[in-house]
Amino acid sequence: MNENSTHTELLIQYLDGELQGEDLDNVKKIIEENASAREELENLRLAKEASKSYGMKTRIGSLHAEMMQELKTPQTGLTRKIFQYSLRIAAVIIVLFGLSEVYQYITATPEKLFSENYRAFDLHQTRGSSTTSLEDLYEKGDMANLIQEYNQLKSPQAEDCFLAGDAYLHTHRPAEAIEAYTRLEQINKTNNTHFFEEDVEYFLALGYLANNEPKKALPLFEKIHADPGHPYHTAVSAWFIIKVKKSVPRP
Amino acid sequence: MEFTDFSLIQALRSDANPDEAIRYLYRTQFRMTAAYIKQNSGTEEDAEDIFQEVVLVFIEILKKDKFRGESSISTFLYSLTRNIWLNELNKRGKSRLRDEKFEKGKGTTDMDVSHLIADREVKSQLMDIVDKLGETCKKILMAFYFENRAIKEILQNLNYENEQVVRNKKYKCLKQLEQMITGQPNLVKNLKSIL
Q1: ipTM exceeding cut-off 0.90 for this assembly
Q2: B188/A54 touch (CB, cutoff 8 Å), yes or no
Q3: The domain containing residue B50 runs over which residues?
């Protein structure tokens, strides 16, 4: 080994922190006194730093490939296909729903709106401990006899009128249902009572629809829709109001 | 594995294995970079290349203690990405003003990091030189200087006769690399100012 190569070996050992004691002192002395040794040390330091940087670059490169695979997997694999498929199904459902609503709007008639929305009154909501004969008949679904008995009453009470009205609606006799409900309203007005007041608003409006009088039904439905506290508020949506309006014959 | 900004910086700055911290950077930051690049005339491939470089530059900045922690890592990486990508666009001859759509106002603070990435070209030339070393030399130098492996461990991995042979080989490789670098005086001059 010539002097330069000896220096190189010592300088590398110095750079790597491997020298101690007398050897370390000797190298420090060489570096101090010898300009070319100092320059060589700096250049070796560059080579060392370059090796470290290259190591980091290589490590990141290898992790990069791994991470790209990981990050792309959900986007290119089964998950993506399922996601795209679900989106398509959702889009189809939305389109079908939209078409169905458009169809309902186009084909909305008072009678159809009545059929889609009429549900028999739930008597359990109001029933007390004692029952009348009309209530029993209503409970049994015997609408024909209920109507017959109602017509024999000389002074029907509010509940009798209400049950009769529903029986008429049930048996597709809307004009008579309207008459029974109107009679109930008159009883309330005369006696300053409020029996079935909100129920009648809804069922009377349905009666008007069934009787092909949507123009009369509309203000009642609008009143119910405008009042969030009304017991039938949720049954009367804005879309339902639009369909009722559409069913009103144009002058 | 989850990291806070602080623990992430510690992990990336240390000489211990930074793999998990780098993976975390990819999982949490890559999509932001990709979105920026793709909104500014780049492709997915550009985004991948730029992010790889951003990670490398960020780690080197950390190791040199030049990250002062005045912003979150996310904001800092965004600024690095923006600077590196705009440089790349300029290199490709594209107008910076025409192509940059992702201006301020996106919830990130624009920082001047240009001085931190000014040495990219010089570092790139240096990496090209290291790349020309033989594979064995690269393995030994990286194992010793980057992975901090002992000569004994390197001996086991590379099947040399004894530790002295590995030591000699390492000496020759480092000297060879030093000569390859000093063969380009301008590069050496630039390197001494940045390393």
Answers
A1: no
A2: no
A3: 5-117
B29 band by pLDDT with thresholds 50, 70 and 90 = very high
Mark which of B117, B142, B159 sits at the end of a domain. B117
Q: Which of A181, A173, A139 lies closest to A156, judged by CA?
A: A181
> Which chain B residue has the Cα nearest residue A45?
B178
Please tell me the distance from the alpha carbon of residue A84 to that of residue B145, in angstroms, as a whole number: 48
Interface test with A, best of B27, B52, B122 (most A CBs within 10 A): B52
pLDDT band at B158 (very low <50, low <70, confident <90, very high): confident
All residues at 6 or more sequence positions from A201 whose CB lies less than 8 Å from its CB, including other chains: A220, A223, A224, A230, A232
List, for residues A176-185, the tens digit of each pLDDT value. 999 999 999 9
Q: How far apart are alpha carbons A67 and A57 in whole angstroms?
A: 15
Cβ separation B126–A50 shorter than 8 A: yes
User: B32 in contact with A at a CB cutoff of 8 Å?
Assistant: no
Q: Nearest-CA distance from B176 to chain A in Å?
A: 9
Q: Which domain does A37 fall in, by range?
A: 3-68
Whether B106 shows a pLDDT value over 60: the answer reads no
- Say whether residue B26 is in contact with chain A using an 8 A CB cutoff: yes
* B138–A contact, CB cutoff 8 A: yes
Residue B103 DSSP SS3: coil
A208 and A126 assigned to the same domain: yes
pLDDT (average), residues A57-62 = 92
Q: What's chain A's average pLDDT?
A: 86
Instruction: Name residue, tokens 């009205």.
Output: A165
Query: For A26-54, what is each residue's pLDDT tens digit?
Result: 999 999 999 999 999 999 999 999 999 99
CB of A71 within 8 A of CB of B27?
yes
Note whether B82 contacts A: Cβ–Cβ < 8 A: no
For residue B8, give how far its alpha carbon lies from the nearest alpha carbon of chain A (Å). 15
Please determine, for residue B107, whether its predicted confidence score (pLDDT) is greater than 70.
no
